[in-house]
């Protein structure tokens, strides 16, 4: 791994360096629990140094003032580099997260598009908008101009390290901000690799700082410093709340994406085989470690038994294994800690009176010896659920599908159930009646709703949640707005005495 991700892994003030106190942390391969490598763990002092360096560069360099078009040449170069490094970067991502190589490659293709999209989208900001019309005197030049926000801290989770980082990086750098990158301590390796690519793509060293660290060691500095202007966070609800509180102290901009418990509503008119495939894909990709996973099946009674039986059969057939093995359809959970959390949720479901139809445990080591060391958890289907249960309301972030049924023809109950969540990130509506599918989709209080498919996204469309799934949006043109200050320049071209005060002249 050292040839792909060399040490040291901190990048501060234009230098690769170890942490000030020499601390390191092992990063673990979730496939077999082996140590991949030791990663430098930044201290609070390192975080202070990174903030100071980012601030200094923001204040003294041309970077914030050059045109978006100039900066966007680096974004295009980054997109090309992502493609030429795809094989190696995907391998790093797979070894560190456990996801399959195919998934890692899809992530890299997706973020290549994100860099290309923002290269075009940000260039539009160079065109200053002149306000004219009856409310602006003719002698006035009234201009709306765009400026970077300043020093932006980008905090990312372990499930999609490359993807989540690039959703933030591309718009932040396109608009002239300086970024401090803080990947998850659980899966830092692809971020270290990506930071090297950023420098190769021509982004100035001063505009990029990288802190591999725990949230506990650097989070307080990054989220409370007067010299940080924005925090963009993707992660869990509890951490998100803490970050919002910390940012409130200095009234920083703060965008958070905090996951979801996403309904997938299936009407009885669906083709059965198609619906089985839809439901299985929506929930079990990446072992359910997806913020938009369709973890909550809400199914119309007439099709329910057959659909559930089909989903159980398909869940039992999913091939788990090493993400590097092309035969693997899904990998392990990311860590022992997360495995324990998912297991505990199954026990909780049993205590709540639900019935585990399949999975609910680690694979049997006698039957699957090659999975015995890793953090694997079998695809799990839980029936007999109702909306009051914690297993239905809380994000397990594992391969767990809960089943709720609604009476035939009762569209309103389906909508009520799908909206009965504190979250609101994503959902699905499946019906051969396209008009009904779209009608129901419009009633769901979720940031993205798919009809007759599940899980697709595009760089061109906004992504984000209602309710406790977060605030702000990533991707699309609003994803750019998060990183931009809007300034109004009001220039009087024929100055006159303002004449407000009539007092004697001194
Ligand atoms: O995430 P955390 P965890 C959900 C999922 C999961 C749960 C907890 O349900 O089981 O969150 O996961 C950094 N200041 N999601 O504990 O803690 C941390 O180092 C600053 C949903 O692993 O939220 C990491 O970089 N930063 C999700 C990042 O926050 C801090 C994806 C996320 O870690 C910090 C992942 C602090 N005080 C988990 N404490 C999604 N929305 O997709 C931690 N961090």
Automatic annotation (TrEMBL):
Q: Which domain of life is it from?
A: Eukaryota
SUPFAM superfamilies in the cross-refs: ALDH-like (SSF53720)
Keyword annotations for this protein?
NAD, Oxidoreductase
Signal sequence bounds: none
**Active-site residues?**
257
Q: Which residues form the Aldehyde dehydrogenase domain?
A: 16-488
Instruction: Please provide an example of a Pfam family that matches this protein in its UniProt record.
Output: Aldedh
Q: Which PROSITE patterns match?
A: ALDEHYDE_DEHYDR_CYS, ALDEHYDE_DEHYDR_GLU
- Name any one GO molecular function: oxidoreductase activity, acting on the aldehyde or oxo group of donors, NAD or NADP as acceptor
Q: Which InterPro entries match?
A: Ald_DH/histidinol_DH (IPR016161), Ald_DH_C (IPR016163), Ald_DH_CS_CYS (IPR016160), Ald_DH_CS_GLU (IPR029510), Ald_DH_N (IPR016162), Aldehyde_DH_dom (IPR015590)
Which pathway does UniProt place it in?
Amine and polyamine biosynthesis; betaine biosynthesis via choline pathway; betaine from betaine aldehyde: step 1/1
Q: Name the protein family.
A: Belongs to the aldehyde dehydrogenase family.
PANTHER family for this protein? BETAINE ALDEHYDE DEHYDROGENASE, BETAINE ALDEHYDE DEHYDROGENASE-RELATED
Q: What is this protein called?
A: Aldehyde dehydrogenase domain-containing protein
- What organism, scientifically named, is this protein from? Malassezia equina
